[in-house]
Write a structure and sequence with these properties.
5 helices, Stc1 domain-containing protein, single chain, two-stranded antiparallel sheet, 2 strands, mainly alpha
């Protein structure tokens, strides 16, 4: 007799505690949040809600900074990316600690967005490349190659849904129960 299916373990059954959206796929959450959820079973917050909270915290910090700097005369620093000399309130404390390599807030935010775009385009590029190779194998009539590329495509799609990278299994122990290397 079989056990009943535990639907809480399904790949697309993640819920956001902030916006209350349900049955989300793993790509809606950060990798670190998913790892923490798998270990402790704690609540999850989707990337969209996390970005909104981060933006609120930034604006609150900026308003606090403006009120704190209103009474004092601030200095200036030069951004290493855009080469502009800007008031110190345009820099994060961690960036100011880097002195000559300090970047202004706008440059840091721009680099974060560029990195995210690059990551997304590389995922799409991988999918497109695999689909192209599948078509090539199909036109050649090479079933073995077609199967190889289809399995890689399904692994990438599964990673998108579950957030787990595929595990490459070993060759196994063989017929006699020994590892590689043959005789004893």
């Amino acid at each position: 007799m079989s056990r009943p299916v535990d639907t809480d373990r399904w790949a697309g059954n993640f819920d956001c505690i902030v916006c209350r959206r349900k049955r989300l796929v793993a790509s809606e959450f950060s990798k670190r949040a998913l790892e923490r959820h798998r270990k402790t079973g704690g609540p999850l917050k989707c990337n969209k809600c996390a970005a909104e909270q981060e933006e609120r915290e930034r604006s609150e910090a900026a308003s606090k900074r403006k009120t704190a700097l209103a009474g004092c005369v601030g200095g200036e620093s030069t951004c290493s990316s855009c080469k502009q000399t800007l008031p110190l309130d345009n820099f994060n404390r961690n960036q100011l600690a880097k002195k000559d390599k300090a970047r202004c807030r706008l440059c840091v935010e721009k680099s974060i967005k560029d990195e995210e775009r690059t990551r997304e385009s590389s995922k799409q590029g991988k999918l497109d490349e695999i689909k192209r190779k599948m078509k090539e194998a199909d036109t050649k009539g090479d079933v073995k190659e077609r199967l190889r590329w289809e399995s890689q495509l399904s692994a990438l799609e599964a990673e998108f849904v579950t957030g787990l990278k595929p595990i490459v299994m070993g060759r196994g122990r063989g017929r006699r129960g020994r590892g590689r290397g043959g005789r004893r």
